[in-house]
């Protein structure tokens, strides 16, 4: 498949995202996809091409003069196209808004190539805050009982459930990430945080190290968790491991992923009395607002208290 040629300004922006802003390659690809879609749509509108032929549109010739012509109305039209014709959810459209805002902010603020930023007034679609899906203690115990004799997989699950670590963070861990009882985790935007390893993690780690694990056959730093082929684990491999344990345990929790195990860990810690700021540090959230999704537990407990009010019971009689 032939690689799509991008205008230099978009390539410059994508390089800026990873080298200066510290965005991951995955995020960079998402931004590239959004910009490619937007400029194809914009060109289709200008040239009166049907929207269902977007994939064939070449945007390599888009110049800074073309970009200067873009208005807020063009951005609104694109968002309407994403919602109505592509059926994009509010969350997907919100990401596209973030991409456009970031791109126009770069070409105006960093490159000073435009005088007016058309995305300044572009609003983000309202997203209903989803309650995190997590396992309760009974489900988590059943899940762990489904582990076959694999010290590596047991250690991985202990890290998920005790530390609330992200799957990408887990895959990036090296042997050198561990210093005594502390683990250095590299999170989003290459931000480092130090997390304490409790007794369960330490024991699981010792058992894994003493299990005659596969020798690392790659280059560079030795990963903490090695695949059976002697390579660094990938997100996809870890997701498959979680799926297999979910089936073997008989739990069969719908769409159980490593991220759901992170939610489980965070929920358990919050229930056990962790305050929001401590949880924010452990989970590596840049904003405390993200961590506040775990206060849903309080809502559930308050609901239970009100349901158990003697007056409520008396009224039912």
TrEMBL record:
<keyword id="KW-0238">DNA-binding</keyword>
<dbReference type="Pfam" id="PF00589">
    <property type="entry name" value="Phage_integrase"/>
</dbReference>
<keyword id="KW-0233">DNA recombination</keyword>
<dbReference type="InterPro" id="IPR002104">
    <property type="entry name" value="Integrase_catalytic"/>
</dbReference>
<dbReference type="InterPro" id="IPR011010">
    <property type="entry name" value="DNA_brk_join_enz"/>
</dbReference>
<protein>
    <submittedName>
        <fullName>Recombinase XerC</fullName>
    </submittedName>
</protein>
<keyword id="KW-0963">Cytoplasm</keyword>
<feature type="domain" description="Tyr recombinase">
    <location>
        <begin position="130"/>
        <end position="307"/>
    </location>
</feature>
<keyword id="KW-0132">Cell division</keyword>
<dbReference type="GO" id="GO:0007059">
    <property type="term" value="P:chromosome segregation"/>
</dbReference>
<dbReference type="GO" id="GO:0005737">
    <property type="term" value="C:cytoplasm"/>
</dbReference>
<keyword id="KW-0131">Cell cycle</keyword>
<dbReference type="GO" id="GO:0015074">
    <property type="term" value="P:DNA integration"/>
</dbReference>
<dbReference type="InterPro" id="IPR010998">
    <property type="entry name" value="Integrase_recombinase_N"/>
</dbReference>
<dbReference type="InterPro" id="IPR050090">
    <property type="entry name" value="Tyrosine_recombinase_XerCD"/>
</dbReference>
<dbReference type="GO" id="GO:0003677">
    <property type="term" value="F:DNA binding"/>
</dbReference>
<dbReference type="InterPro" id="IPR044068">
    <property type="entry name" value="CB"/>
</dbReference>
<dbReference type="GO" id="GO:0051301">
    <property type="term" value="P:cell division"/>
</dbReference>
<dbReference type="InterPro" id="IPR013762">
    <property type="entry name" value="Integrase-like_cat_sf"/>
</dbReference>
<dbReference type="GO" id="GO:0006310">
    <property type="term" value="P:DNA recombination"/>
</dbReference>
<keyword id="KW-0159">Chromosome partition</keyword>
<feature type="domain" description="Core-binding (CB)">
    <location>
        <begin position="4"/>
        <end position="108"/>
    </location>
</feature>
<keyword id="KW-0229">DNA integration</keyword>
